[in-house]
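Render this sequence as a predicted structure.
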Amino acid sequence: MIKQILHKSFSITLAFLVLFSTVSLTIEKHFCGDVLVDVSIFSEGENCGMKTLEMQKAAITKMNCCKNQVDVVQGQKDLAIKTLDDLEFEQQVFLASFTYAYINLFEGLPKQIIPNKDYAPPNIIVDIQLMNDTFLI
């Protein structure tokens, strides 16, 4: 029972590890001056409306107070799938001998026979010791 639970939890953990190592993220941050206005993941961030105002005053000021910062976290692009045939001969021999020795390391216990396992005890109608006032001390 516990072995199955551990096996399933380990498999799920490894699946999520492969998933999260291959996902690429794009984090966009929009600043108006020195104030962070918007942060978005996987999509384009909203601006603070300074684009239109900026275009109107572009001839006057020639300064841009808004800036976008884009952080890209690249995931792993290529996953190599290894098989037993990719190992060298010495590594295959070691792996086979280690597996054989580990499996034969543990011995099972003989199955115990319980002769009265299916026997149902009789129903107690009256407690005889209490009725006769006989108690073991």
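Summary. Residues 13 and 113 are 41 Å apart (CA to CA). Residues 2-22 form the longest helix (21 residues).
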